[in-house]
Design brief:
Layout: E1 5-8, H1 34-43, E2 47-53, H2 55-58, H3 64-80, E3 87-91, H4 107-116, E4 124-127, H5 130-138, E5 142-146, E6 169-171, H6 174-205
The structure holds magnesium ion and zinc ion.
């Protein structure tokens, strides 16, 4: 049973996105600092899984073997920097198939919850597109936008468009999200240690 889980989108969040789709392992290239950011999460005890729309499969632009090769490259490059993604959950359908797993539908997130046997309430989920966050909040995840990939258009804006979930937090990139999460969890650990200390001293003085 795990408790520290982060769910990441893939294209535009971990690797460079392309309007022509990422179709081969060669075209799969990580964004600066993204793999190191995942490694930092792992070292702090976080499990990381990917939830990704891969409609290029349904559109016939590449096959599952090509997708596996992309992910083999990702895993290999990650392990070279000491990082690890536990699993990649992907939707292989094209939009006109009306499946229940293509984000903004929540099917991939439900699969993740089932696999880990956990309620995803409060689990941080990160993506560069509104639909990533819509899928995330449908299962109670905490929505985080990275301003890379499709999210780059929101850089420098003081407010996100109204259709974004109200509790969306925006970060420059995946590395900035990880900075934020690790700082937050360190602060929480510190304050709970302090609370324990306080109750100890209260107990001894009684
Ligand atoms: Mg994306
Ligand atoms: Zn699907």
């Amino acid at each position: 049973m795990i408790t520290k889980l982060v769910i990441l989108d893939r294209d535009g969040t971990i690797n460079h996105d392309s309007d022509e789709y990422v179709k081969t392992a060669q075209e799969w290239t990580p964004m600066p600092g993204a793999l190191e950011a995942i490694a930092r999460l792992n070292h702090a005890g976080w499990h990381v899984v990917v939830a990704s729309n891969q409609s290029g499969l349904g559109r016939g632009l590449f096959d599952v073997a090509a997708l596996n090769a992309m992910h083999a490259k990702m895993h290999k490059m990650l392990s070279a920097v000491g990082g690890r993604v536990d699993a990649v959950f992907f939707c292989p359908h094209s939009p006109d198939e009306n499946c229940s797993c293509r984000k903004p539908a929540s099917g991939l997130f439900e699969q993740i919850g089932e696999r880990y046997g956990m309620d995803l309430k409060g689990v941080p989920a990160v993506g560069d597109h509104l639909r990533d966050l819509q899928a995330a909040i449908a299962v109670g995840c905490e929505p985080h936008l990275v301003m890379t990939g499709k999210g780059a258009q929101y850089k420098g804006q003081s407010n996100l468009p109204k259709d974004f979930p109200a509790n969306t937090q925006a970060h420059l990139d995946l590395s900035a999200f990880v900075d934020w999460l690790l700082l937050k969890t360190q602060a929480a650990a510190k304050s709970s240690a302090k609370a324990t200390q306080t109750s100890h001293s209260a107990g001894s003085s009684a």
